[in-house]
């Protein structure tokens, strides 16, 4: 159990390695990148691009992403928040799944 | 391969969302039947693993990036239906909190990453086992094919946009590149790098899980590998 938690923490602390890869994923550009590539932003793209505003856009803390150190902290923070949110959703699903007498809860 | 908001038309989002409704309802039924409340942490760990592994961007020659998704690994260890649920929840959180993949595009993204990837990967894994390959090699091949199938589905959905949705003079309304650009670009990234990373992670974790003893919290992930039903 202890080993599992240590491994999980190590993996989370290593996530900023994912920031080292340069550029965006193909097909996941921001609107400014699109503009640079084809000279305009398709109408539908700009209309729908911000249906909801993410709290931690691109796994970063807004305004706290000027250097790699800040980006790395924001990335680790995002990993922790994301995992916590997932655990919370499963906890809720666990409460509503099945009938209590049939499931060992 | 997370499709951002505005990259595919609302019509496409609706069709893909509608396609995911029966998948998710069957998956919910199957998971409710075959898992107990005490298995919830196992499903949550699977979902959190996929979420975290997707944060490890790897460089692709030509200046773009990609990442593994862990879909086949979840399908092998939890079963493909439970993998579907776990991956959909990871995708939902990515879209909601981090803007990684659109909320309207969640149906399309979960179709590709939470349905195509785990089911294709699982099918290939079973096929390789039937060819007498060992579990580690079979799972790695399954992972490689699974992520590439998802990449192909993503490329097709993106590449169809300029064909189907444009203004009167032909200007694309959404994703501007056609199938002839989208398919080679997506497949290059996943056939060369992301697929290999997915294969290595899948194989390594399966190798490790086969050795996990009962004391290990991850032992629950290995019952399918040991051939037990529960």
Automatic annotation (TrEMBL), chain A:
Phylogenetic lineage: Bacteria, Bacillati, Bacillota, Clostridia, Thermoanaerobacterales
Domain of life, per lineage: Bacteria
GO terms for cellular component: plasma membrane
Annotated source species: Thermoanaerobacter pseudethanolicus (strain ATCC 33223 / 39E)
Residue stretches making up the PDGLE domain: 5-97
Cellular localisation: Cell membrane
Keyword presence, Cell membrane: yes
UniProt name for this protein: PDGLE domain-containing protein
Keyword Membrane in record: yes
Parts of the chain that traverse the membrane: 72-93
Pfam families linked: PDGLE
Keywords linked to the UniProt accession: Cell membrane, Membrane, Transmembrane, Transmembrane helix
Main location, first listed in the record: membrane
């Amino acid at each position: 159990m202890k080993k599992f938690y240590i491994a999980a923490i190590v993996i989370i602390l290593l996530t900023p390695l994912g920031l080292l890869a340069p550029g965006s994923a193909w097909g996941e550009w921001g609107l400014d990148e699109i503009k640079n590539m084809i000279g305009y932003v398709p109408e539908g793209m700009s209309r729908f691009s911000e249906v909801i505003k993410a709290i931690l856009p691109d796994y970063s803390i807004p305004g706290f992403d000027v250097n790699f150190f800040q980006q790395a902290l924001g990335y680790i923070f995002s990993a922790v928040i994301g995992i916590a949110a997932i655990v919370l959703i499963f906890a809720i699903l666990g409460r509503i799944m099945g009938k209590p007498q049939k499931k060992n809860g | 391969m997370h499709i951002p908001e505005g990259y595919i038309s609302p019509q496409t989002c609706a069709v893909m969302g509608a396609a995911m409704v029966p998948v998710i309802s069957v998956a919910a039924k199957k998971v409710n039947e075959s898992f107990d409340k005490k298995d919830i942490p196992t499903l949550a760990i699977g979902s959190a693993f996929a979420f975290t592994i997707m944060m490890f961007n790897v460089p692709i020659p030509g200046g773009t990036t990609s990442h593994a998704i862990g879909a086949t690994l979840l399908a092998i260890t939890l079963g493909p239906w439970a993998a579907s649920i776990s991956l959909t929840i990871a995708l939902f959180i990515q879209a909601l909190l981090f803007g990684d993949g659109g909320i309207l595009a969640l149906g399309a993204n979960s179709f590709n990453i939470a349905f195509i990837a785990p089911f294709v990967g699982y099918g290939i894994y079973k096929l390789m086992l039937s060819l007498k390959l060992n579990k580690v090699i079979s799972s790695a091949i399954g992972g490689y094919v699974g992520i590439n199938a998802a990449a192909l589905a993503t490329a097709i959905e993106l590449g169809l946009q300029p064909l189907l949705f444009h203004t009167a003079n032909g200007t694309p309304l959404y994703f501007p590149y056609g199938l002839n650009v989208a398919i080679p670009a997506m497949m290059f990234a996943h056939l060369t790098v992301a697929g290999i990373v997915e294969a290595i992670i899948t194989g390594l974790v399966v190798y490790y899980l086969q050795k996990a003893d009962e004391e290990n919290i991850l032992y629950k992930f290995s019952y399918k590998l040991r051939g037990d039903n529960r």
